Amino acid sequence: MLELPAALRRTAATDPRIRHWLTALPGEVDAAARRWSLTVGSPFQPGGGYSWVAPARDARGRDRVLKVGWRDADSEHEADGLRAWRGRGAVELHASWAAGTTSALLLERCAPGTPLAGEQQDQVVAAILRNLWREPAPGHPFPTLASMCDRWAASPKERPLDPGIVRAGMALYRSLPRDPVPAMLLVTDLHAGNILDGGAAGWRLIDPKPHVGDPCYDVLQHLLNRRELLLAAPRDAAARMADLAGLDRERVERWLFARCVVGTPDTPWLGPVAAALA
Predict the structure, then answer these.
(1) What radius of gyration do the chain's Cα atoms show?
(2) Which of 194, 201, 196 lies closest to 88, judged by CA?
(3) How far is residue 47's CA from residue 49's CA, in Å, rounded to a whole number?
(4) Cα separation of 45 and 38, whole Å?
(5) Which of 56, 112, 196, 241 has the fewest CB atoms within 10 Å, measured from its CB?
(6) Positions of the chain with pLDDT lower than 50, given as ranges
């Protein structure tokens, strides 16, 4: 029986699509191991919410990581993004394959692979983003940030906030990605847990969800993962990240307000942050 990380088991317990997908996962892992001539170890713990990720070694004895995941709209172009970044600030992609509801990636192995933590988080996140942002090549496959925002804004979930704050936040969330600003290739899910210590290679991004749009959006997930800082002084936190990343302070703050409004149904503590920013 295929060993499952705890995070994937928790996801499967609440998502029937993932439970169904898990029945085919052992065969997909075996197929990927044969395709790339891999010896595969036990999965990393706690693991990704929608992926099975494990250390592996190829036929030439080189350390790799095998990632077999559920394909969804946000992660569909992970391999395309890693190819575009070519190992500059992100883990290197060695091979990829996708079919049906499953994708498989053969990735660089980060060593020691320790996730980012401590007081240096803001500086490291900003430096990685500045290194990754670039204009997408003509004919690129990436979806727009506006399409992602529209999808999230369409959720019928109630938001426990003053109706005027909700209207303002939702309107901003739809309009900001359509403003005439230079569109860059974005990570959209960058936070300390998705940044690993690559030793001599430096800090390495994993698990991107590439879209094309306003770079001011790209500091948001990191900010949302700094709960204590946001609850204490959301404007200061937004201004600090804007300055470190070379972004417009007011625009980052407007994005943060809109994102907090959108996220309150699933993350209630964002409500007070949205109210403070309003």
Answers:
(1) 19
(2) 201
(3) 7
(4) 20
(5) 112
(6) none
